[in-house]
Specification:
Distance between the termini: 43 Å
Radius of gyration: 19 Å
Order of helices and strands: EHEHEHEEHEEEEEHHEHHH
Largest sheet: 11 strands, mixed
Number of domains: 2
Oligomer: single chain
CATH architecture of the largest domain: Alpha-Beta Complex
CATH topology of the largest domain: Spore Coat Polysaccharide Biosynthesis Protein SpsA, Chain A
Number of helices: 9
CATH class of the largest domain: Alpha Beta
Strand content: 15-25%
Helix content: 25-40%
Length: 289
């Protein structure tokens, strides 16, 4: 067990997967914190029955991934913190070798490889939208990267707090892209150790209903517009709105109704952004289309 690391897990209707996640990490860390974003599937009850070691922060509303992570990290008591998605699992202590990378004081974040067993073991290490997926090998199997996925990573808590953590203007998606960009801009390094891997059942952490897909589509679009404006100083919302409305009309004409709904949801996000509307409701909960 590594006594110098806290594990933070953000949960939203993650009952079906989170106990396996906790089971896989509990023997390798001193502290586990679950930040629950007002789940309605008995996630909290399930966690309490499964493992008494877990500290649970119960939000009365869904405040989003980035805000919940920041809250968990602020609550953590250890020098290092691992952000772990509820649909990821590990088989051994990978925290200790990841922490070893912080010997270099310029390292802001260290992560393993995430592989997806539900996607032909596809490995995701980079997001091509904001950060280039370039990675330079600096040691055997250790890479200086431009992006690290928010599914699983380790940070030094003091550095995270100093930089400001995840941008809390974002409810969901691209918050990992944004924090990596911010870290690189401030002279930090992002390290990926390809000798270490975790299993990530991508997309299973909060369910896969049509309502969930609609929420994901809306916030993917809004967050993309936000970071594009923040880092590229261009508002592409009008262009995206025209494109999505046109796509909706085209798909309606060829009777692809499932795509029509997706395009309308994205266009709604574009229009909201054009009106300078937040992705949060006035009470701090995320907007639900």
């Amino acid at each position: 067990m590594n006594k110098n690391i806290s594990v933070v897990i953000v949960s939203y209707n993650s009952k079906d997967v989170i106990t396996q996640c906790i089971k896989s990490v509990r023997d390798f860390c001193e502290e586990i914190i679950v930040v629950d974003n007002a789940s309605i599937d008995d996630s909290v009850k399930t966690i309490k029955q499964f493992c008494k070691k877990v500290k649970i922060i119960e939000n009365d509303k869904n405040i989003g991934y980035g805000r919940a992570c920041n809250l968990g990290i602020k609550t953590a008591s250890k020098e290092y913190v691992a952000i772990v998605n509820p649909d990821t699992t590990i088989k051994k202590d990978i925290f200790t070798p990841l922490i070893h990378n912080f010997i270099d004081d310029c390292v802001f974040m260290a992560a393993p490889i995430c592989y997806r067993p539900n996607d032909n073991n596809k490995i995701r290490t980079a997001n091509r939208y904001l950060n280039k997926c370039e990675a330079t090998e600096i040691d055997r199997g250790v890479y200086d990267a431009k992006f690290i996925s928010g599914a699983f990573f380790v940070i030094n808590r003091a550095k995270w707090m100093k930089l400001g953590g995840f941008d809390e203007n974002i409810f969901l998606f691209y918050e990992d892209d944004e924090v990596c960009k911010n870290a690189l801009k401030n002279g930090y390094k992002l390290i990926i150790d390809k000798k270490i891997s975790v299993k990530h059942e991508s997309g299973t952490g909060c369910g896969n209903s049509q309502k969930v897909y609609a929420i994901k589509d809306w916030h993917t679009e809004w967050s993309r517009l936000y970071i594009h404006k923040k880092y590229k100083n261009r508002n592409i919302a009008l262009w995206r709105f025209i494109r999505n409305v046109s796509s909706a009309i085209f798909n309606l004409l060829i009777l692809r109704t499932s795509f029509v709904k997706k395009c309308i949801i994205r266009a709604n996000a574009n229009f909201s952004f054009l009106q300078n509307k937040s992705c949060f409701n006035p009470d701090g909960s995320g907007y639900l289309p």
